[in-house]
Structure formats: structure tokens, C-alpha cells
Amino acid sequence: MKKYNILVIGIECYFGHIKEFVINLKKKNPLVEISLVTSPISDDDRSELDGVVIRVVQHRTYNGRIRLRYFVMLMNVLYYCFEFFGLLLRGHYDIVDIHFPNRHIKFAMPFIKMMTKNIVITPWGSDVLRVENEKSIKELSQIYSVAKYVTVSKDSQIGQCMMEKFKVNPEKMVKLGWGGEFFDFIQENSSKVTTEEAKDRFGLCNKYVITCGYNTQREQRHEDIIDAVYSVRNQLPDNLVLLFPFTYGRTTWSDEYTESLKEKCKELGLDFVAVEEHLDMLGLLKLRMATDIFVHVQTTDAGSRCVMEYVACNKKVVHGAWIRYAYMEKYKPSCYFPVDNLENLGECIKKAYNNQIEALPREVVKVIMERGWNYKMALWNEFFESLV
């Protein structure tokens, strides 16, 4: 095991995943020295990083009342330059790992290049798939051109997209894959939670539960799912309930959006439950276990962990076929129901309801459980050590 120091940059991405990443990196290699640049975080989050990271820089963007476009841009440029120049003065890093890169990070790239010989970029999925603006594509292409390594497989959907969209050199791509503590938690605890206990947790006893997406974002296409269920409602069980996980992905318009979905269900006479409280890992496991059918038809994604979590719990999954899962397509577990387009969604949900599912193929279990951080972080640490 080698000692090295690494700067992890995760400014515009979900902090919970960044926190999970650095905690598991430190757990796998206690010798590593981690510095972190992130968006502003709570005192509780900061306390969880004690003993894990040696330095936390909370990056702030300009959010003042003045909405002049160029003034705001100037202020954010100054913030980036000031913060990263300060980091440069603090010393050299063996590795700088940039998560969820955005075009604004270009302002810091001159300083980052002076900090290290090893710039690693870790895309998450939506930061690649949802970028369509030509200017943004050009700016991100410039950022990727500076990277020494990009932590995705060239054979994956996201890897193919990056080569086409951002002209990323495939020789830079390293197959590592994102992990998740929850996969390890499922492996250790799923046999301890019954479906009945899970449904009771959310007031769903004796209900047939269709879970609609996994967060509050419009991209989850909740309205389309509601319409699809309504179109086949008479062919689904009388005790049907739609379950909406509205805890994550909330924005300034979320309350208005979620209320409109509730009103739509009421108008159509569909029973529903909205989960809007924060859930710990046991709560998330019970949410998965309480589900009979999980419907995932969001616009774009790059291998949703949530889909794999439902499959790991052997729940029926209706999934948009435009988001590719090579191992699911290869082994075709009986719980997996791909749908080509929204017009066929209702029929696919009906098919999932009518079909019996069998135990998961061993190959699928192996692929899913190897997504846990217990397995994945060993690969990340080995890769980081190879750069030192």
C-alpha cells in the first residue's frame, strides 16, 4: 500500500456521492492524504469528514441580486481563480481527480495543471449525456483534452458518447466504474427485511406498489408513468398504489411540480404515496423492498445505481431500453422488462404485472454486487497508486 496525496474536486455534483467516495478511499488506503473542493456543505457533513480529509475548501459561486450575465460570470471566474490559486500555493498533489466536470472549471485549469502531473476526470453520466449546447461541448472538449486519464470504459455507453461528443482519446480511458455503499448494505441486510415489514414502513400494507422513478427531477417523466398506468388501470390489481420518491433531486420548483403530480393522480382516481423525508440506508432498502414494480424511463442516464438496487432486491423493473445495461441484455433476468418507447409503457407495465419472476442469474448477482465500494474502491486505489 502506497502513500499519496490527492485533490478531489466535486463542485456541482451531489455531495453525498462525493462524501461516500472519499470516505471509502480513506477506508481502503489509510495512508492516502485527501484534500477536497466542494460546494458549501453543512456542519454535520463537515464533521463526517474529520479524519478522512486533511483539507476542505467550500467553493462559492456568486448568487447576489445583480443578475447581469457578464458581471455574474466575472465574479465566478474570480472565485475559481482565487480558490485554486490558494490551493496551488499550498503545494503539489500526486493526483487531481475532477468529478462531474462543468465548463466553468476551465477557469481553474491553468492552476490545476501546475498542481499535478496527473489530472484525472471522473464523469458521472448526466454531465455527459445531457450536454447539447455547442459552446458547452466545445468548452468541455478542451477540458477533457487536458486530462491524462478519464475514468470510464471506452466500450460503455457513456464512453462511446464521450468519444463522439467531446473527441476524448480512447487511450485515456480507464475502466473503473462507480461504486456504492448501498450495494454492500443490500448484500448484508436484504435477507433481514421482509416485504411486509417494508410496506408497513410506508403505510402500504396489503398494497400492490408501483414506484415511479427515483427522484424529484422532471427527467424521471412521472406524468408519463401516471398516464401509462391509467391506460391499463383496469388490468392491474384493485389495491394498486403509486409510490413517488420525492426526497432527492429537489430544486426551487419542486413543490409546485410534486403538487401537480399529486393533483393529477387525484383527478384520475389513482391512489398514491409520496415519500418526501430523508431516508437512511435502511429506509432506502425498505423502499426497494416495498416495491412490486419499479418504473424507470428517465430521458438519459448512464447506468443508474438505483435500477441495479431494485434488481439486486429481485424486484420487477420496467426500464427504458434507450439506457443500455449490457449485462441485463445478455443474461435477461426474468425481473427485467425493457420498453422501447413511452407509447408502449402501459403494456410493458401490464406485462410485468402478469409475469412471474425467478431467482436472479448468478452472473447478474455477481455484476451487481461488484458495484459495491468494497470491491470497486480496490480498483480505484490500485489505479491511483500506479500514478505515484
Alpha-beta classification: alpha/beta
Range of helix content: 40-55%
Overall, the morphology is globular
Query: Number of helix segments?
Result: 17
Global mean pLDDT: 88
Number of strands: 12
Low-confidence stretches: none
Our estimate of the beta-strand percent is: 5-15%
Q: What series of H and E elements makes up the topology?
A: EHEHEHEHEHHEHHHEHEHEHEHEHEHHH
The largest sheet, given as strand count, sense and whether it forms a barrel, is:
6 strands, parallel
End-to-end separation in angstroms reads 11 Å
Radius of gyration: 22 Å
The strand line-up of the biggest sheet is: 3-2-1-4-5-6
What attributes characterize this protein structure?
globular
Describe this structure in words.
- The model has no long low-confidence stretch (mean pLDDT 88).
- The strands form two sheets. Strands 3-2-1-4-5-6 form a six-stranded parallel β-sheet. Strands 9-8-7-10-11-12 form a six-stranded parallel β-sheet, with helices on both faces.
- The protein has helices spanning 15-28, 43-48, 69-89, 109-115, 126-129, 134-146, 157-165, 181-189, 195-201, 222-231, 254-268, 281-289, 305-312, 326-331, 345-354, 362-369, 373-386; strands at 5-10, 33-38, 55-58, 95-99, 119-122, 149-150, 208-212, 240-245, 272-275, 293-296, 316-320, 336-339.
- Helix 1 (15-28) crosses helix 17 (373-386) and helix 10 runs parallel beside helix 11.
- It has 388 residues and is an alpha/beta fold.
- The longest helix is centred in the N-terminal third of the chain and has 21 residues, at 69-89.
